[in-house]
Design goal:
The protein contains 2 helices and 6 strands; from the N terminus they run H-E-E-H-E-E-E-E. Strands 2-1-6-5-4-3 form a 6-stranded mixed sheet, with helices on one face. The radius of gyration is 16 Å and the shape is globular.
């Protein structure tokens, strides 16, 4: 029996090493697609009905809302925003997996183009296996210092 076929008494399927690698790449690929304005890549990251919740602030519903928010963020920051993710761990769930990680939002500021951390918080991406691979179906972002983005104000 392969690791993917194994099911625990709680009904949760074990994840293979290949599953874990594909899942772990989702947050990193999101950062690159968002930071380099490669929005067409979002379709390979999210389900069409994805919901991103900024805990206590609001939600972005659907793939187009994710793309619109990324474009708006690029406009607000004049294209000088970068995402950094760390401390990633993957927890198998009945629906697929929960991907936990920290996010640092960097902005290039100042005359010397130095960067500063502008946003920090914790993400949980709830991912599911689709016929085209693993995709993020739901995201929860808990900001350390909640700030409402202009498009949710």
């Amino acid at each position: 029996m392969s690791a993917r076929e194994g099911t625990g008494s709680d009904g949760v399927h074990a994840l293979s090493a290949a599953d874990r690698l594909e899942i772990a790449e989702l947050p990193a690929r999101f950062c690159h697609c968002s930071d380099y304005a490669r929005y067409e890549g979002f379709a390979d990251l999210f389900t069409a009905d994805v919901v991103t919740t900024l805990v206590g602030i609001g939600e972005y519903r659907g793939l187009e809302a994710q793309i619109r928010h990324a474009r708006d963020t690029r406009t607000w920051t004049q294209g000088h925003a970068w995402h950094v993710v760390s401390n990633l761990w993957i927890e198998p769930t009945r629906e697929g997996a929960a991907v936990h990680y920290y996010m640092l939002g960097m902005l290039r500021t100042g005359a010397d183009d130095s960067g500063r951390v502008n946003t920090t918080g914790r993400f949980v991406d709830h991912v599911t296996r689709t016929p085209n691979g693993w995709r993020i179906r739901r995201r929860e972002f808990t900001l350390d210092h909640p700030t409402t983005p202009p498009d949710l104000a």
